Amino acid sequence: MTFNFSGNNNSNIIQVENKSSDNIYIVTSESGIIIREKPSLGSKRIGAIPFGSKINVLEKTNKELIIKDNGKEINGNWVKIKTYNHPYYYSEGIEFGYVFNGFIKEESEFILELKDKMQEYPEFKNYEIVKNNNPFVLNGDFFGDGAKDLAIKIKDSTSMTFGFVDNKINGKERIVVINNENLSGGNLDFGWTEQLEKVSKNKNLWPKNEDMSNINVNFKYPINKKLVLGYNSLFGHNLESCGGGYIFWYNNKFHTITGD
User: Fold this and answer.
1) Would you tell me how many other CB atoms lie within 10 Å of the CB of residue 103?
2) What Pfam families does the record point to (predicted)?
3) Do 218 and 130 fall into the same domain?
4) Dihedral angle, C-alpha 26, 159, 167, 146, nearest 10 °
5) Same domain, 215 and 155
6) Residue 52 resides in a domain
7) 87: phi then psi, degrees, rounded to nearest 5
8) Domain extent at residue 171
9) Quick one: which of 118, 63, 109, 54 has its CA closest to 86?
């Protein structure tokens, strides 16, 4: 499923001008996209890119493809991309690959649509998207109700935080912005989440994580009891240092577990 807010020539390749901001696209497929070695469904899979990630499109081929997605036909072409887009390597050891462009959207267009979506809700009134983050939007079940939500990195005049479009199974939505009232004991500034990822369900967040030392937990929790969430959380990391940690919803509050 794709996320929505509201040929024939003599050459096999149509060159796209490099180093232009217009070459940056956002992955819109809720389940992400597959990178292939060549522009063909039968070609070897060499990587995957999750929803919300930025990719650099280098070339558009004339190889067309029609994909059926929930009964709807999506028409597009194979495009050549860089498999590295700071700070992520989407395919180890391989510099270029091909993806279907029916599941990506130009970054400028994606941002405009996301802004329009945010303007529907007064909770987002004083916030803007942190556009330089890669990604600045993720999807997942962040509240444990089985519905797929959006997490958007946003900022106002004083701090960076996250806003969630909390989708419900019955189709309704609510907006939740992390603030001083719903954040348990933490510092309301998530500038350290320059690198941002969705954490899979059922991952043990506590008491020990081999990737972090000097762990700081901002809520009272038994030191030797595992904390395993049956839903998604966020993991953020500072690109210029070793600091990072988890951000998650638990007992009607947001919490962080951070370390070096």
Assistant:
1) 24
2) SH3_3 (PF08239)
3) yes
4) 90
5) yes
6) yes
7) -105, 25
8) 121-259
9) 54
